[in-house]
């Protein structure tokens, strides 16, 4: 059965093989060129494109929230400040791009709404009692999932502003948790070395993978039942949920992987690391493609929904976010 599943996976007709990727417009298999630098006051710790819009949100280590908009001729920058003693730790956007969710080291979640060319806090959730490491919208924008150092992830209803559910399956910090397969599943990874799959209806763990002695710092999901995780020791591991095993492994990085992300239109995976490298892989053929060197550790990365723009944040050149643009041949 596992062999048949792997054949279905690798023979899928929705992807183009690497031999013709050079003729594809929307792909980072075409090495992107430097396009633009965006200034921030502090060090950017998280980047997120706002849904399908031509806007990029950035969070820095001084609680400044920036939104850069280049949809018109002149670049427009909006800035808001989180005026509290706690530190913001991460951010994400809804599908429409008109809301941003941030989380903090004191266990709070804030929803920011776009009003009159500025961002204001609309709603706040409290339920975690330790630092929240990551937060993510469901595909229908009705729910949020947050993961924390208190060893749990929690699900919140954005319409009623109420807590919905939680889990206590992990035994260490939960680094990241994401909805999957039309929000029916949740995939989470923790410092306890496990990547776990939870059924949102039954609340049960239905599958898990042990990375010991390593553990996953970050993960990315693709709707063909593929999970990519970046680990503390620098490896990239790709799991197939149907085969319940690792189907690809890359060891190109020499240090902790901070962020991984699948492209939307092509079979490419992007990873960034403490080793100052951004790497791109062809997951259809299972091979490493190329690296882009940076001057310092790359803390965060995000890919636009059309695969044409890549944003990276690393500590160099006076707190800049670097935008990379992919051009067709």
Short description:
The protein has 329 residues and is mainly β. It is 3% helix and 53% strand.
Question: Count of DSSP helices?
Answer: 1
Largest sheet: 4 strands, antiparallel
Low-pLDDT segments, ≥5 res: 1-14
- General form: globular
Please tell me the overall pLDDT. Answer: 87
Total strand count, please?
28
What is the N-to-C succession of helices and strands? HEEEEEEEEEEEEEEEEEEEEEEEEEEEE
Strand order of the largest sheet: 1-28-27-26
**Cα-based radius of gyration, to the nearest Å:** 19 Å
Task: Report the β-strand fraction as a percent range.
Answer: over 45%
SS-based structural class?
Answer: mainly beta
- The multimeric state of the shown protein is single chain
Quote the distance from N terminus to C terminus: 41 Å
Helix content: under 10%
Characteristic terms for this protein:
329 residues; mainly beta; 4-stranded antiparallel beta sheet; 28 strands
Please explain how this structure is put together.
The protein has one helix at 2-10; strands spanning 33-39, 44-49, 55-60, 64-69, 76-81, 88-93, 99-104, 108-115, 118-126, 132-137, 143-148, 153-157, 162-166, 174-180, 185-190, 194-199, 205-210, 216-222, 226-231, 236-240, 245-250, 257-262, 268-273, 277-282, 287-293, 298-303, 309-314, 320-325. The radius of gyration is 19 Å and the shape is globular. A hairpin with a 4-residue loop joins strand 12 (153-157) and strand 13. It has 1 helix and 28 strands. The chain starts with a helix and ends with a strand. The chain has 329 residues and is mostly beta strands.
């Amino acid at each position: 059965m596992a062999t048949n599943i792997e054949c279905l996976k690798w023979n899928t007709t929705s992807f183009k093989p690497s031999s013709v990727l050079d003729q594809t417009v929307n792909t980072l298999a075409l090495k992107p060129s430097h396009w633009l630098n965006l200034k921030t006051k502090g060090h950017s710790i998280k980047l997120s494109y706002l849904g399908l819009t031509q806007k990029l949100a950035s969070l820095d280590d001084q609680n400044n929230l920036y939104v850069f908009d280049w949809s018109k001729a002149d670049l427009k920058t909006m800035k808001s400040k989180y005026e509290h003693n706690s530190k913001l730790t991460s951010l994400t956007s809804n599908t429409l791009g008109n809301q941003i969710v941030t989380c903090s080291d004191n266990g709070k979640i804030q929803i920011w709404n776009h009003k009159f060319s500025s961002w204001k806090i609309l709603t706040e959730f409290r339920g975690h009692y330790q630092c929240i490491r990551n937060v993510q919208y469901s595909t229908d924008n009705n729910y949020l999932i947050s993961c924390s150092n208190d060893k749990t992830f929690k699900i919140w209803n954005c319409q009623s502003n109420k807590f919905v559910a939680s889990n206590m399956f992990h035994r260490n910090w939960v680094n990241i948790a994401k909805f999957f397969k039309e929000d029916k599943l949740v995939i989470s990874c923790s410092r306890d070395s496990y990547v776990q799959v939870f059924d949102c209806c039954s609340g049960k763990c239905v599958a898990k993978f042990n990375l010991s002695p390593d553990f996953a710092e970050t993960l990315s999901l693709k709707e063909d039942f593929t999970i990519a995780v970046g680990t503390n020791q620098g490896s990239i591991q790709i799991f197939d949920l149907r085969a319940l095993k690792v189907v690809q492994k890359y060891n190109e990085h020499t240090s902790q992987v901070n962020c991984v992300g699948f492209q939307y239109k092509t079979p490419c995976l992007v990873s960034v690391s403490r080793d100052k490298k951004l790497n791109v892989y062809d997951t259809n053929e299972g091979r490493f493609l190329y690296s882009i060197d940076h001057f310092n550790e790359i803390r965060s990365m995000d890919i636009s929904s059309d695969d044409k723009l890549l944003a990276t944040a690393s500590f160099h050149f006076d707190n800049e976010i670097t935008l990379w643009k992919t051009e067709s041949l």
